């Protein structure tokens, strides 16, 4: 029988996940499908209650359902509970399970770009933003052992809220304080929408970053954001947002179809062509 996985969202048409999973299904010769399903908020609970009877093996959850799905799913991983968010669901023992893989995806993309020993180079991490993506990345960094994280967010209260996850490891600073933190940051991560096509620019002078610093952006439209372009112009190492998108998909595919897929240059090219 064909294994069927979904991506649910509202709207869901923009999701690039079908491209990623479709590429892997073809590459590994798996008789499966990965389908977009438009699910408005009022249909989320009924949809999740019918996953097994409707013949799905699981799927992805995207905006705006990540938090609501976390509350509705029977079993969640510790990291999903901590972040209050899920992006990957699967059936096991007749129950729906949920996990959040964005943070793991970010760390894998960092390892791809910088090497497996990236953690040795990460002293102080400066994170811009305190939304869902920042939460996932902060959670994964804490799990990996990072203990000097500085959070700057336009809305200060949100950064303080996220810092309370681990007060001894995370410091929240005002958005205006970013230039003062740059000289001691080894890793700078933009998790805001700034720099995305159609969104405001990220006004940042990277001159104060150390030469060995790494600059990461989770924005991938465009792939080379102004932030990454100015980091490259300074000769700094960069991590673009496409790697995180590709790597966050790996655990789901493995759960649904039984093969741990590789993130290859071919896959990158397929998704890049669609950006
Ligand atoms: P995501 O799930 O992608 O993280 P989100 O939870 O809506 O999305 O979070 C968006 C993040 O981008 C927030 O940190 C937001 O800052 P606020 O908490 O102040 O809203 C940040 N952001 C969005 N637009 C921004 C802008 N123009 N300048 C600075 N930060 C911005």
UniProtKB/TrEMBL annotation:
InterPro entries named among the record's database cross-references: Aminoacid_DH-like_N_sf (IPR046346), NAD(P)-bd_dom_sf (IPR036291), SDH_C (IPR041121), Shikimate_DH (IPR011342), Shikimate_DH-bd_N (IPR013708), Shikimate_DH_fam (IPR022893), Shikm_DH/Glu-tRNA_Rdtase (IPR006151)
GO CC terms in record: cytosol
Top-level EC class as recorded in UniProt: oxidoreductase
E.C. designation(s): 1.1.1.25
UniProt entry tagged with the keyword Amino-acid biosynthesis: yes
Pathway, per record: Metabolic intermediate biosynthesis; chorismate biosynthesis; chorismate from D-erythrose 4-phosphate and phosphoenolpyruvate: step 4/7
Assembly information from the UniProt record: Homodimer.
Full protein name: Shikimate dehydrogenase (NADP(+))
Organism whose genome encodes this protein: Enterovirga aerilata
GN (gene name): aroE
């Amino acid at each position: 029988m064909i294994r069927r996985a979904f991506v649910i969202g509202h709207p869901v048409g923009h999701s690039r996940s079908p491209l990623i999973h479709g590429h892997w299904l073809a590459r590994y010769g798996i008789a499966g499908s990965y389908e977009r399903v438009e699910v408005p908020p009022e249909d989320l609970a009924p949809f999740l209650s019918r996953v097994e009877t409707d013949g799905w093996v699981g799927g992805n959850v995207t905006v705006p359902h990540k938090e609501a799905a976390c509350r509705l799913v029977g079993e969640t991983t510790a990291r999903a509970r901590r972040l209050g968010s899920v992006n990957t669901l699967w059936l096991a023992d007749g129950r729906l399970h949920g996990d959040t893989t964005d943070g793991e995806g970010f760390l894998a993309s960092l390892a791809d770009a910088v090497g497996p020993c990236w953690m040795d180079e990460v002293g102080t991490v400066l994170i811009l933003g305190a939304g869902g993506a920042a939460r996932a990345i902060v959670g994964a960094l804490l799990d990996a052992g990072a203990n000097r994280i500085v959070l700057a967010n336009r809305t200060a209260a949100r950064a303080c809220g996220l810092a309370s996850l681990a007060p001894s490891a995370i410091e929240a600073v005002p958005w205006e304080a970013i230039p003062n933190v740059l000289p001691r940051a080894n890793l700078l991560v933009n998790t805001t929408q700034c720099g995305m096509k159609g969104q405001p620019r990220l006004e940042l002078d990277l001159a104060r970053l150390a030469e060995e610093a790494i600059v990461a952006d989770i924005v991938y439209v465009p792939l080379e954001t102004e932030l990454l372009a100015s980091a490259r112009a300074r000769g700094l190492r960069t991590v673009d947002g496409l790697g995180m998108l590709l790597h966050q998909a790996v655990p789901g595919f493995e759960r649904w179809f039984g093969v741990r897929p590789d993130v290859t240059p071919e896959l990158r090219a397929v998704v890049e062509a669609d950006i």
